[in-house]
Amino acid sequence: MRDIRAKPLPITNDPKKRTLTTLSPVLTIKRGIMTIEQGRELLTQAKERLRSRRALGFFNAAFHQLNRDPNDGMAWYERLPHVSFLVAKWALASWCPRDDRADPDQEDIRYVFATTWDAIGHLHMVDERPTIFMRRMVLQQVWFQRRFDNSALARQYRILGEMMAGTPIAEQFTRDFGLSPAEFIVQLAHLAADTGDQLGLQAMSEQRPETPRDPEHWLIVQAHYSRSVSDFHDELSELETRYTPSEVEVCEQSPLIRTPFMLSHHGPVCIHHKLLFQTLTTAVFDLARSLGARPFMNIFGPAFEEYVAEVLADLNGHVIREAALMALLVGEGRVVDFALVSDDALVLIDAKGVEGHYDELYHNMPAVLAERLKTSLLRATSQAAGTVARLPNPLIRAETYFVCITFKQLVVTDGATLRELTAGTEEWDHPRWSSGALTPGRMLFVSIYEFESMVALAIAREVSLSQVIREIVTANADPATRKALVEQHVTGQGVALLAPTCVQEAALRLRA
What we know:
CATH architecture of the largest domain: 3-Layer(aba) Sandwich
Helix content: 40-55%
Strand order of the largest sheet: 4-5-6-7-9-8
Largest sheet: 6 strands, mixed
Distance between the termini: 21 Å
Number of strands: 9
Number of helices: 25
Structural class: alpha/beta
Shape: globular
CATH topology of the largest domain: Restriction Endonuclease
CATH class of the largest domain: Alpha Beta
Strand content: 5-15%
């Protein structure tokens, strides 16, 4: 990577600490006869007990459980923070002004937490679909096992603050939120740095811009991520009016990610820093998309593709873009965004800016998952299979791989996982899976963070990207070395990784 006259922005702060050996659900399967109906009943009992007592008493108990030392690391994971986040959500939804219910005593608190935990054991039944089971557990728990993504704000600054500047979405963002996407991200960098100072996290402290925060801009950003108890109640009680099956609700990420600060008499208080980490990772993306998913994606999609091209530029490899690739392919049909050509392998790459519908992420029924995945990852695999079928002889290699890049983490990992998610549906037997040159195991589905990490690992080890992919595919083919997420393969090697050059340079402009 080029020397950009500044301390390189690492993807990983400390390779040894960043190794995701703990990146696995801490929930264990309870033995014995369990049914989803029993789980639903237990969850109902826990909620009823909670609603019979003063709501803030349960919120305070959850807040204490989340924040007492140690408030991070394995000892914290073993305290089952996903249960505390659920209880906190229910408590805020149950709040009412002039609450005259009795304060919960220790037995009330113990009962609600323990019964919720027991309910989850029933509701997470494998039910002969272990792939769905593990994916839902990862979605439920792994987000709070991650450290802060050093590149998150600079990545959004590059795509939404610079590449999309002047577009109708950027202009609407400015009208609706009072700041341009770039200005908004500058204030988020101050917010991250403040948190880093408080927690002693150097990577976050180093996000601070050189220019002082604008007081008016700061108030606007604070207002987006801070809520009073009353506001939390309005939002979360409205969510409760939408029927969400218990087995789906218990595996979702906390809705508190959207607003991780609670307003108190002393000002905003962060409910837990893991919420803030997740907020900052996609904060401006989420706000811009909330203005209208379709018009946003019409602009974000091409910008995201250009961003992936900038990341690929660090490899100095032979990259063929979509238009040129289309001209080389035989006949008509679908095509991917990029082809990375090396002597021994061909890597097809497609950039999908999708974030995943709620049902696409959390549901436990293959029919529902297949319907939602049709327009995202399943479509991507069809594009890849169609491209392989049309390859001219000069592009055919002994090994062909496909990497689909999404902005957010969809927790699908590879084609074998994706196909299992559609078991029992017509998508299972779709012709896309029958390509001898591109088997499901050679298809990877990664977040942009994971893709940046894969590229950085190839550069750090001075090997081709296809070699990194080959090793991941080989490891995933063996149950003993298979991982739930691609990032586990990458960060588990303990190699110091640098952010892409485009991110490093965007970080300089952001901080200036």
